[in-house]
């Protein structure tokens, strides 16, 4: 009978220590949860403040005054817009059977260029003084 009493005493002691450890772990996690909740609330308050500042800074009347003060924007008139005649004419497509059986883009780059985009074809646009105004 004495052995069974000692066995039950050891089991009760182990259960008491385990309960003590679990209790402290639960308290630690509750403190972490409370801290996270406080951080979430402070982040939400900061977001509300930033949204209010954003709304204040993006008021149309304020932006219009800043544009007038810092940018020299003027309305477009017909003289500033070019016409279709100022655009370059499309050149004919190059012969795919260029020198050495390679296309013109491959011949000008070299035989090891396989996945490169084609070279641009065309000429730059030259605007007259009237179109620049």
Describe this structure in words.
This protein is about 60% helix and about 0% strand. The protein has about 130 residues and is mostly helical. The longest helix has about 55 residues, at about 1-55. The model has no long low-confidence stretch (mean pLDDT about 80).
Unreliably modeled segments: none
C-alpha termini separation? 112 Å
The major pleated sheet works out as:
none
General form: elongated
Mean of pLDDT: 79
What's the number of helices? 4
Query: What is the strand tally?
Result: 0
Order of helices and strands: HHHH
> What structural class do the secondary elements suggest?
mainly alpha
- Rg to the nearest angstrom? 39 Å
What is the beta-strand fraction? under 5%
DSSP helix fraction: 55-70%
- Quaternary organisation of the protein chains: single chain
Question: What tags apply to this protein structure?
Answer:
133 residues, mainly alpha, 4 helices, elongated
Sum this structure up briefly:
By secondary structure, this protein is mainly α. The protein has four helices and no strands.
Write the layout of secondary structure elements.
Elements (H helix, E strand, L loop, with lengths): L1 H56 L2 H11 L33 H6 L19 H4 L1
